[in-house]
Amino acid sequence: MTVNNSEKLESSVMESVPLMSFKQKSLSKLLRLLLAGLTKLTRNKRKTLIKHIGKTLLYFAKKTRVRAIKNITKAMPELSMKEATNLAFDAYGNCAFGVAESFWLCEVEPDIFCDEDTLRILQSGQGACIATMHLGCYEAVPLAVAKFAKESVTLTNIPRFLADSMDFYSAVNITAINKNSSSAFSELLKMSGGNAYLSLHCDLYANQTDVTFFGQETKAPAGIALLAKMTNKPLLLAYAVYQGDGQVQVFFETLYLNPNLTSQASEEQETEPTVEQIMAKIYRRFEQIIKQYPNQWYWSYNRWKN
Questions:
Q1: Distance CA 179, CA 82 (A)
Q2: Contact, 63 vs 78, CB < 8 A?
Q3: What phi and psi, each to the nearest 5 degrees, are found at residue 174?
Q4: Per-residue pLDDT tens over the stretch 217-246
Q5: Which of 197, 193, 140 is nearest to 169 (CA)?
């Protein structure tokens, strides 16, 4: 029996794509059923239910709960243990909803705020690197970018077997790259060179560069600063928060313009900052934002390794 080229190609592709295990198929089906049920609810009812689920999960996840409270007391020692505990539960519930809204990005219409210079960067079509954080609606920043740019790119940690079956990123014109892929950074670098707007969460622990965060020495990812320097792109900072009525607001600000891109560099930009200096500036700003919205940030990361 002969096999033509198209059959060979199809066979090759099938062999290169890992088949889902029974457990993965079951989880995917269960999640789709859960989402179908939640979709029938109004957004306010969905929010109330998901926040309650988030708080319940934290109650039973002792290790995660203890870490969150410990991080809060380190960052804000002025809080009593009761206040820190209440904040941990409130923040976890809000973050659960912030994550869940990724599945309904089509329904999210964020209000966008920035100054005129930052707006010009977003509308230029020449691309930018954007440092963001796990605050409020987690994917609202790349969603907002997609309102301005043809190519809004972010990293995702959602398992591939779920992302493939529920393509909620492409539905709102966001390109999502698997964070765990060995080629993730090279893909980001290529897209940045092609004038994409890259939004990366930078508030996790990563053993790449030293920073001071809430008065504590820790380490942070440096990818966003490296990408901005390697591609000569502007570096922005953006974050999304929920208002009392549930409306999502996204704020953009310019952190760094490569001197090569400006005709007249300011005194601050006469000497090009190092990656370490850029990340230190980002983390100082993160700290200010978290203090303003402490009940919308995810406190349970293993931020301080001591």
A1: 36
A2: no
A3: -110, 130
A4: 999 999 999 999 999 999 999 999 999 999
A5: 140
